[in-house]
UniProtKB/TrEMBL annotation:
<dbReference type="InterPro" id="IPR036390">
    <property type="entry name" value="WH_DNA-bd_sf"/>
</dbReference>
<dbReference type="InterPro" id="IPR008920">
    <property type="entry name" value="TF_FadR/GntR_C"/>
</dbReference>
<dbReference type="InterPro" id="IPR000524">
    <property type="entry name" value="Tscrpt_reg_HTH_GntR"/>
</dbReference>
<keyword id="KW-0805">Transcription regulation</keyword>
<dbReference type="GO" id="GO:0003700">
    <property type="term" value="F:DNA-binding transcription factor activity"/>
</dbReference>
<protein>
    <submittedName>
        <fullName>FadR family transcriptional regulator</fullName>
    </submittedName>
</protein>
<dbReference type="InterPro" id="IPR011711">
    <property type="entry name" value="GntR_C"/>
</dbReference>
<dbReference type="Pfam" id="PF07729">
    <property type="entry name" value="FCD"/>
</dbReference>
<dbReference type="Pfam" id="PF00392">
    <property type="entry name" value="GntR"/>
</dbReference>
<feature type="domain" description="HTH gntR-type">
    <location>
        <begin position="15"/>
        <end position="85"/>
    </location>
</feature>
<dbReference type="InterPro" id="IPR036388">
    <property type="entry name" value="WH-like_DNA-bd_sf"/>
</dbReference>
<dbReference type="GO" id="GO:0003677">
    <property type="term" value="F:DNA binding"/>
</dbReference>
<keyword id="KW-0804">Transcription</keyword>
<keyword id="KW-0238">DNA-binding</keyword>
Length: 249
């Protein structure tokens, strides 16, 4: 009788205790079982309740703090309080991941082409009078900065940020903010290269979008932003009756 070869079972990955415990607490926070403002038990109590080593509990809390889900104060009278990450914290996190991940410029530009025309559309629908005035003011500052490339690009970045805020869509504006940072770091200065004609064209396109936003013309804002970003004209998701006739810009 011939011998059979042993079957290779293979290794398994065992989750780290700190990750498991962090997941447990994170789930209770996101499910609302631990509402914002809830004071967590002390580190000593968490150690006793969980049966984990102090170093494991501490690492779990550090994970949650980095994710913006708790605020921890050290010291005898310190402790951890449940919180939620702010939009700025989310933007910083996404921006950091984009820097570390370093996606190619084409992927960043495509992401912007998808998001920003809709941001312009929503801004034209929902902007406040103050935001409309701020966009116009930034256009004037951009015109004054046209002789200096870096100041000009900084004004452009401020305009795009203000437009995103005017959309009143926190998800879109937060994601766009992170993507825009990467784009302006990697692409914008190289693209303009100090070319006065390109800078004047870019400013003219900003002014046109601003005018559409100021005058509550969402479809025009969408199309003009698409043109500004050189979005490929594969299809136009807007149609007759979506705010204004398609032919009007």
């Amino acid at each position: 009788m011939s011998e059979q070869k042993a079957t290779v079972i293979g290794a398994i990955e065992v989750p780290r205790p700190a990750d498991v415990y962090a997941d447990l607490i994170r789930g209770k926070i996101l499910d609302g079982e631990l509402p914002i403002g809830t004071q967590l038990p002390t580190e000593r109590q968490l150690v006793e309740e969980s049966g984990l080593a102090r170093s494991v509990v501490r690492e779990s809390l550090q994970q949650l703090q980095r994710q913006g889900l708790i605020n921890t104060k050290p010291g005898r009278h310190g402790g951890s309080v449940v919180s939620r990450p702010t939009a700025d914290a989310v933007m910083e996190s996404v921006d950091l991941h984009l820097q570390g991940w370093a996606p190619n410029n084409h992927a960043l530009v495509q992401s912007r082409q998808v998001m920003e025309p809709w941001i312009a559309y929503f801004a034209a629908e929902q902007r406040t009078d103050e935001q409309a005035a701020e966009l116009q003011l930034i256009d004037e500052k951009t015109a004054e900065a046209i002789t200096g490339l870096h100041d000009f690009v900084a004004c452009k970045a401020q305009w795009h940020s203000t437009l995103a805020q005017a959309s009143h869509n926190e998800v879109l504006s937060t994601l766009m903010g992170a993507v825009a940072r990467s784009i302006f770091r990697q692409v914008e200065v190289i693209t303009l290269q100090g070319d006065r004609e390109s800078m004047e064209q870019s400013l003219a396109e900003h002014r046109a979008v601003t005018d559409a936003v100021v005058n509550h013309r969402p479809a025009a804002a969408y199309r003009l932003m698409s043109g500004h970003l050189r979005t490929p004209p594969v299809f136009d998701p807007l149609h007759e009756g979506a705010g204004e006739p398609m032919g009007e810009v």
